[in-house]
Each structure stands twice: as structure tokens, then as C-alpha cells.
């Protein structure tokens, strides 16, 4: 057994306490040292002065955020950190990644430990209002589902009456599960473990009959099992899970930048701007919206507090939304589905106009 | 002898010293320093509280304990009191406190028994037994508790699935879902019998005291066991028979995914209990060994020379003196065990920390959540400390 899980569990345990302490102590410092604290309108300036973006990501979820064998963070959420760093610094590598657990993520952002939380977090009313945080958009439309061992022969979620179900605590997943079970009169025994690795381990070892989380997470877990065919994701989707990046409440200028980086990724896909052709399009494309987006005119970048070539820098670094999706999520078996562009049937990804 | 001295030094109060407002006066200096230090501490606390309030307001983070009355909606696998996801956060947290107490109290009892046995074994003249105890203590003490918990939990997951459950005795099933035992279909008569059992224990204790007083008076030892047997076994039996002698048993049976009925010990609880018990027992063993070794050999020999039997020597001579050394550090171990139970989060046993963490995550009220956890542990720990201190004072040797 390596020491890795030990360290991670300890950090998970400390998350809540550190957050509480941070709220108590941060901001007690003189105003000058208080730059990253919430409520101040200077997050972007603080990031520029520091020279790096501090980005909170998952501790390890295949396809979304996971270090590769060289220790470089990769994934769908990680690309958002890289895109924002590219927009600010024209360098997608000026990011420091902070792994956060389901429980430590909000306090990490509240306390100013991270500038951005890009960690498959569901947008809900209570989170939007009571945490002192703001959601900047939906970069992934998800829904909660169940995964079972194929050998159990379970075909729909309602057959899970009497089952033991593995679930991560401190997430909307837990609440959706109980809501759904009450609505459908399904009795179940929960096994609640915070660390994803231990939870998936318990499911794989047969401690639970089913494992529930967002379908994207199920697909990621299934793909990382030794034999994915042994596991089946049930067709039932029991909730809406719009996932998106979060920033602290009160700094609208910085929130605007994060929001528009997402729209830039989606709009680039709409307009056919890709990592390969972005330089050439910036030089030659005559469509007015493309010219405004890629900084030829309009001064849109300045309005956001970054250089006018920000979209060029972002797309050079990460490619457009469709490219990011194809690179990280399609290999683990997640289809575009609702995350296709609005121009395709069933698609919901829609960018606000660049003008 | 009465004191009838006429010497004025025996009854006259010492002359009052004038308090001079001068730095040279030791008492003035002491008062000034105390005021300054209390002032600094109060100032720091006031500053932290004010900052916290200010920051919470600026960040628009909700405050207060109003959330305790809201519906929790979180699933809890093990609960000693009635709980459904429709219950309030307060109820959910109470379940968490009871779960913590359940593992801490049983853990303390088991760790004390195991630790005492190992501690005595380490002093044994049997070479093998002594070495085994020594190896146990060294290995258990030197591995972090969290790793031990993960080890036990992983081991328990290696048990077979419910359908292939081990079935050593009729009605007992051991699988990776835990240990299922048949349990009495609980009736009112059982509650009365249980009450009679507790009353029997108390009666036995009173009898033992009365018998000891008589022995002190005339020196003749009297047997306790007939009264104990009657009170502890007989009384509950009579009550149970009078209640109609219900014998229905709730047998566990495999239905659908899992066993239904009976009584379950979950793998999470079991792993935590074994981990805490074996770990703490390693430390208790050393305390017990130190305590027994602290009683000088002369005491043993002197007691034996008086013709006392070995059991009496241990009970009446050695143990009272050893306990003086054993009890204070034992309190620390009990506190450690209780606090270490918060590692339950790692293996999915829903104790107070686990449930409070989920609560603070769902409500976003970290400060209140952490305050609740701290208050719970402080209350449990202070209760243990007080009762152990009371016990320590009781057994302390009275110096004459």
C-alpha cells in the first residue's frame, strides 16, 4: 500500500477545517496582502501579478482531471484551466493545479487558496446563493446514473430495491439518490466513502451492488477498470447535473473572463476555428464575427482585461470545445449527446454572440 | 490530644502586609501581568470573531444554526435511532454522535481487555507468550493507524459475496456485506428482562458491599456467587417467563441483493473497531506492564509471607498499587481512541465527522459544522476525563 492514499485522506479530512480557519484568518491581514480574498474586485490583477493561475481540479477522474505518467495534469476540466491561463498570459502552462476533494473544493475557493474551481461541480440554487460563489456557465451537461456489475443482470435502476449502493458524500449525488429512492419507493443501504479511489475499490470488491454518480464519472470509472465489459451503466438518468467552473462571488470582471473563455471555445467550434487553422483564420478570414473574435477589430479582449488576441491564444493552446471533447471524453466512451452544439438535434452548447 | 497552647504564635493571625502601588511589590507585579495576559487573549479572540463575521458577510456565506431544522436528505447506512433521509440535520448529526459513541465505548472496553491480557502476557515466564506479546506491541505501535484501518477494511472486502456467504452456524452469515446474526424478535418482555438484568447487577454490587462489611467485622469470608447467580441470571429469567417467555427469533435470509432480517455488523464498523482496538491495546499493554512492574518485588514477597493466596495478593496488594500508575495514562489512551475514531471517514463508517462534513458541504456552513464536531469531541473527551479522574481519586492510596 503506498502512502498516496494516506496523504489524500488526510488532506480530505483537513479540507473543512482549513476552510473554516481560512475564513477566520484570511482577510485579517492588512488590505494590501488581501488581494486574493473574496469580495475584492482584483482577482485578475492578483493572478497577473502572481504570474500563475491557481486552479482547483479533481483529485483524479479519468477524462476530466488526472495526472499522466509524467505527472502532467490532463483532462477536460484541466483544458479550461489551460484556456484561461492562455487568455491571460498567452501561455497555457502558467497554471498551478490544486487537487480538491468533493468536500474541500468550496472552502478552497472561498478562502482564496484557488482562483478557479474547474471540477465537475453541479450548478444548484443553494450552492449559487449560500456559498459565496458564482457559477460562470455550463461546460458539461450531465446527469446522475448507476453502474452495476454486468453479472448481476440488472437492467433498470428500479430493480435496485434492497441493494447496497456506493456513493460519495458531500455531493448532490447523495441527495439525488435519496430523493429518487423516496420517489420510487426503493429501499437501499448506502456505503458512503469520501475518497473516490476507496469508493470505487469498495464497489469493485463487491461491497456494493451499484455505484452511483454522474454518468460522465461512471464512464470514466468504467474505462479505468481492468475489464470495462464487466460493468454496465444503466440507462436511467435520475437527475440534471449541469457542471461548470466556479469563481468567488463579487468579482464580476474576472467572472466575465472565465465565462467568455467558455463561450470562445464553443463559438470557435460553431465557426469552424480549430487549433490547426486558427493562425491562418486570424490572418485571412473576412467574416466580421471571426475578425472580432480573433482580435482584428472590436477590442473585445480589452473589455475583458486581456489582450485582443486572447481567443487566438486560447484556441492555439487547447483547440475548440469539440476538439477538447474529442481529445479527452470520447476516448473514455462519452458521446456528445446534450453537449453537442445547439445546431445539431439534441445539442445544448450555445455561445453568446461576440460583438 | 487536644491543642491547649497559650503560645500566641499558634492562634494570632500574621500581620497584614500593606499593598503598595509600586512595581517593587511582588503582588502588584503579578496582578499587572495577569491583567495584561488576559487582555491580550481576549483581544485576539475578539479580533478573530470580528474578522470571521466580517469575512462571512463580505462573502455572503450563510451563518447560524438554522440549518439544523432543515431536511437533511443524506443517506446513512447505520443508525441506532430511527432515521430516514427526510429527517432533519439535527437528527442526522445525532445519529453521527451515537455512531461515534458506539465505536468509542465498545472500543475502549475491548482495548482495555486485550491490552491488559497482552501486558500481562509480556511479563509471563513463558518465553513464547512473552515474545509474541512483545512483537505484537512493537508491530502495532509502529504502523500508522490509518494504514491499519485501510488494511482491515480491504481484508474484509475479500470476503465472499452474499450469495456465496460463509455459513459457519445456522443463521449466521459472513460475507463482504458484513456479519449477519439472528436476533430476538424484540418484545416488551425482553425489555423488562434487560431491565431486571441491570437491576440484578446493581443488587449484586450491593450484596458484595454488605458481605465485605460483615467480613471486616468478624473476619470470616462469605461466598458471593449464590446471590450473584440468583440476581443476575435468575431474576431476568423469572421476569422473562412472567412476560410470556417469547422466543421468536428474526432469522436472516437472502432476499434479492442482500440478507434481510437479523442483526448486522457492517464491515465498516467492524474494520474500525478492530483497528482501534488492536492499535490502542498495544499502548495499553505497555501501560499495564509498567504499572505492574512499578510494584516492588518486596510487596509480593511480604504478602506471600503473610500466607495470602496468589489471587488475593494480586487483587488486594499489587493491583491497588499498580492502578495508581496505570489509570492516569490510561485516560489518555481512552481519549486517543475516541479521537482516532474520526479516521472512520477513510473507510466509510458514518461517524460524527463524516456526517458533519457532509452537512457542512451541503449547507456551505463550514464554521458551524467544525464547531459542532469540536463541541462533540470536547464533550465526550471531558466526560471520559472526569470519570477517569473520579476513579483515580477513589483508588488513590490514602496516605496516613
Automatic annotation (TrEMBL), chain B:
Keywords: Amino-acid transport, Cell membrane, Membrane, Transmembrane, Transmembrane helix, Transport. The chain crosses the membrane at residues 30-49, 103-121, 189-211, 223-249, 269-288, 370-391. CDD domains: TM_PBP2. Its main location: membrane. One of its GO terms (cellular component) is ATP-binding cassette (ABC) transporter complex. It comes from the Bacteria. It is a multi-pass membrane protein. Residues 97-388 form the ABC transmembrane type-1 domain. GO terms for biological process: amino acid transport. It is found in: Cell inner membrane; Cell membrane. One of its GO terms (molecular function) is transmembrane transporter activity. The keyword Membrane applies. Belongs to the binding-protein-dependent transport system permease family. HisMQ subfamily. This is Amino acid ABC transporter permease. It comes from Roseomonas indoligenes. The lineage of its organism: Bacteria, Pseudomonadati, Pseudomonadota, Alphaproteobacteria, Acetobacterales.
Amino acid at each position: 500500500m503506498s502512502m498516496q492514499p494516506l496523504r489524500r485522506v488526510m488532506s480530505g479530512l483537513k479540507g473543512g477545517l482549513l476552510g473554516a480557519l481560512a475564513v477566520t484568518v484570511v482577510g485579517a491581514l492588512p488590505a494590501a496582502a488581501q488581494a486574493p480574498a473574496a469580495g475584492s474586485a482584483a482577482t485578475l490583477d492578483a493572478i497577473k501579478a502572481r504570474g500563475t493561475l491557481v486552479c482547483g481540479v479533481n483529485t483524479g477522474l479519468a477524462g476530466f482531471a488526472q495526472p499522466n505518467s509524467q505527472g502532467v495534469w490532463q483532462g477536460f476540466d484541466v483544458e479550461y484551466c489551460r484556456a484561461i491561463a492562455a487568455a491571460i498570459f498567452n501561455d497555457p502552462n502558467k497554471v498551478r493545479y490544486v487537487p480538491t476533494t468533493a468536500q474541500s473544493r468550496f472552502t478552497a475557493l472561498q478562502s482564496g487558496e484557488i482562483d478557479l474551481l474547474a471540477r465537475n461541480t453541479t450548478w444548484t440554487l443553494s450552492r449559487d446563493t449560500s456559498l459565496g460563489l458564482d457559477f460562470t456557465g455550463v461546460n458539461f451537461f450531465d446527469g446522475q446514473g448507476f453502474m452495476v456489475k454486468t453479472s448481476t443482470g440488472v437492467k433498470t435502476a428500479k430493480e435496485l430495491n434492497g441493494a447496497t449502493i456506493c456513493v460519495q458524500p458531500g455531493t448532490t449525488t447523495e441527495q439525488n439518490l435519496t430523493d429518487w429512492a423516496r420517489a420510487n419507493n426503493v429501499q437501499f443501504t448506502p456505503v458512503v466513502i469520501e475518497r473516490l479511489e476507496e469508493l470505487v475499490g469498495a464497489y469493485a470488491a463487491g461491497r456494493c451492488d451499484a455505484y452511483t454518480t454522474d454518468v460522465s464519472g461512471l464512464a470514466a470509472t468504467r474505462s479505468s477498470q481492468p475489464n470495462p465489459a464487466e460493468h454496465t451503466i444503466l440507462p436511467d438518468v435520475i437527475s440534471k447535473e449541469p457542471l461548470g467552473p466556479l469563481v468567488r462571488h463579487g468579482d464580476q470582471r474576472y467572472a466575465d473572463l472565465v465565462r467568455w473563455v467558455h463561450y470562445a471555445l464553443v463559438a470557435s467550434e460553431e465557426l469552424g476555428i480549430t487549433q490547426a487553422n486558427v493562425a491562418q483564420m486570424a490572418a485571412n478570414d473576412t467574416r466580421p464575427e471571426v475578425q472580432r473574435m480573433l482580435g482584428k477589430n472590436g477590442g473585445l479582449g480589452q473589455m475583458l482585461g486581456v489582450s485582443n488576441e486572447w481567443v487566438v491564444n486560447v484556441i492555439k493552446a487547447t483547440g475548440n470545445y469539440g476538439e477538447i471533447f474529442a481529445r479527452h471524453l470520447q476516448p473514455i466512451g462519452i458521446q456528445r449527446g446534450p453537449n453537442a452544439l445547439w445546431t445539431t438535434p439534441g445539442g445544448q452548447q450555445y455561445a453568446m454572440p461576440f460583438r | 490530644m487536644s491543642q491547649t497552647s497559650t503560645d500566641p504564635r499558634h492562634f494570632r493571625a500574621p500581620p497584614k502586609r500593606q499593598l503598595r502601588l509600586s512595581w517593587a511589590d511582588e503582588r502588584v507585579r503579578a496582578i499587572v501581568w495577569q491583567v495584561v495576559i488576559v487582555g491580550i487573549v481576549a483581544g485576539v479572540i475578539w479580533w478573530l470573531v470580528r474578522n470571521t463575521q466580517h469575512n462571512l458577510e463580505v462573502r455572503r456565506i450563510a451563518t447560524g444554526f438554522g440549518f439544523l431544522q432543515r431536511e437533511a436528505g443524506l443517506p446513512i447506512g447505520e443508525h441506532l435511532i430511527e432515521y430516514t433521509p427526510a429527517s432533519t440535520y439535527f437528527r442526522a448529526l445525532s445519529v453521527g454522535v451515537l455512531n461515534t459513541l458506539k465505536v468509542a465505548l465498545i472500543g475502549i472496553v475491548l482495548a482495555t481487555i486485550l491490552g491488559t491480557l497482552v501486558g500481562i502476557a509480556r511479563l509471563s515466564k513463558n518465553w513464547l507468550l512473552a515474545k509474541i506479546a512483545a512483537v505484537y506491541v512493537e508491530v502495532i505501535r509502529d504502523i500508522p493507524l490509518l494504514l491499519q484501518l485501510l488494511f482491515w477494511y480491504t481484508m474484509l472486502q475479500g470476503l465472499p459475496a452474499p450469495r456465496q456467504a460463509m455459513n459457519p452456524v445456522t443463521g449466521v452469515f459472513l460475507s463482504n456485506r458484513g456479519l449477519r446474526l439472528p436476533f430476538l424478535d424484540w418484545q416488551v418482555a425482553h425489555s423488562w428482562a434487560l431491565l431486571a438484568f441491570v437491576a440484578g447487577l446493581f443488587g449484586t454490587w450491593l450484596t458484595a458491599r454488605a458481605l465485605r462489611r460483615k467480613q471486616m467485622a468478624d473476619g470470616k469470608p462469605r461466598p458471593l456467587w449464590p446471590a450473584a447467580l440468583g440476581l443476575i441470571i435468575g431474576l431476568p429469567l423469572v421476569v422473562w417467563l412472567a412476560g410470556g417467555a417469547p422466543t421468536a427469533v428474526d432469522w436472516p435470509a437472502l432476499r434479492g441483493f442482500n440478507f434481510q432480517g437479523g442483526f448486522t455488523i457492517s464491515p465498516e464498523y467492524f474494520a474500525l473497531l478492530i483497528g482501534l482496538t488492536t492499535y490502542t491495546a498495544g499502548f495499553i499493554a505497555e501501560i499495564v506492564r509498567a504499572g505492574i512492574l512499578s510494584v516492588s518485588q518486596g510487596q509480593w514477597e511480604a504478602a506471600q509471607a503473610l500466607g495470602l493466596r496468589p489471587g488475593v495478593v494480586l487483587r488486594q496488594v499489587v493491583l491497588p498499587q499498580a492502578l495508581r500508575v496505570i489509570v492516569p495514562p490510561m485516560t489518555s489512551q481512552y481519549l486517543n481512541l475516541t479521537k482516532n475514531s474520526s479516521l472512520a471517514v477513510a473507510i466509510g463508517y458514518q461517524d460524527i465527522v463524516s456526517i458533519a462534513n457532509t452537512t457542512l458541504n451541503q449547507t456551505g456552513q463550514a464554521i458551524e459544522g467544525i464547531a459542532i464536531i469540536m463541541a462533540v469531541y470536547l464533550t465526550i473527551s471531558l466526560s471520559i476525563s472526569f470519570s477517569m479522574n473520579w476513579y483515580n481519586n477513589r483508588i488513590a492510596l490514602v496516605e496516613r
